[in-house]
Amino acid sequence: MNMILSLRRRKRVNRSFLGSFMLFLFLAVFGAFMALPLVFAINAAFKPLDEIFLFPPRLFVRNPTFDNFIDLVELLGNSWVPFTRYIFNTVFITGMGVLGHVIFASAAAYPLAKHKFPGRNVLFQIVVLSLMFSPAVTSIPNYMIMSWLGFVDTYWAVILPAFAYSLGLYLMKQFMEQIPDALLEAAKIDGASEYRIFWSIVMPNVKPAWLTLIILVFQILWGTDGNGFIYSEQLKTLHFASNQIIQGGIARAGVGAAVALILMSVPITIFIFSQSRIIETMATSGMKD
Q1: pLDDT one digit per residue (tens) for the chain, 289 residues
Q2: Distance of CA 85 to the CA centre of its chain
Q3: Which of 53, 145, 281, 284 is deepest in the core (most CB within 10 A)?
């Protein structure tokens, strides 16, 4: 017992009060700097037009108003496509894309992490290399595949490519590698099938990973506009509708600020309530390779 206490004392960081204060001050300054865009966006949504175009710009609003949100409601009320339709399209695409990606990424990561077969390392290296490519690089191949399948101008033209995001496969594989092999072997001895092991043992143990994956993919799909894949107005997303409003000219700058605040509020809220899961997953994955 004394030996354990002595080891803990050795691992304890020896930092003076001044050092702790300087570290806190350093983090506070950088944290405030990173929060500036969010603070500016919140204040811009409540600024009248004369404050929005004021130069030099002010960070905080002086005369807050709800006129931007009132004008937004009037614009959406005059649209021939109901605003609720844009919301439904966005929620459906986001929900189906997130669900499919988590299932496919987890199912593909399990054999890569826990089964040995020829070409396993080569496949994983291809997955890692695919992380280097931006969505703009793969947009043309995605469009060609969706066109061959006949899914252009449908929801599935946006949903199906989301199933194949390589980031989810990478995170799930790295996380599943930490599950003890003895646990899986014991389940096999008890007669559990591979599907039972996957759903009843593996997935519950990697819950922080797939919760993080839900958040990351949600943020990607929530901000998609389906540009190049969806042409019908009744299938457009909320992000596309907001872009149409913003492109109405400088007279709609305030409305555009209100739309930007509404769009960013949903993923930010989800991130705030689940940031511990993301930090846990990011700290765990990517360490072994």
Answers
A1: 444 444 444 445 556 777 787 888 888 888 888 888 888 888 888 888 777 777 787 778 888 888 888 887 777 777 777 778 888 888 899 999 999 999 999 999 999 888 888 888 888 888 888 888 877 788 888 888 888 988 888 889 889 988 888 888 888 888 888 888 888 888 888 888 888 888 888 888 888 888 888 888 888 888 787 777 888 878 888 888 777 777 766 667 778 788 888 888 877 787 777 666 666 655 555 444 4
A2: 23
A3: 281
Distance CA 177, CA 116 (A): 12
The answer to whether residue 269 sits within a structural domain is yes
Count of structural domains, the chain = 1
Alpha-carbon distance of 267 to 259, in angstroms, equals 14
Check which CATH number belongs to the domain holding 197 and give it. Answer: 1.10.3720.10
Q: Residue 98 sits in which domain range?
A: 74-284
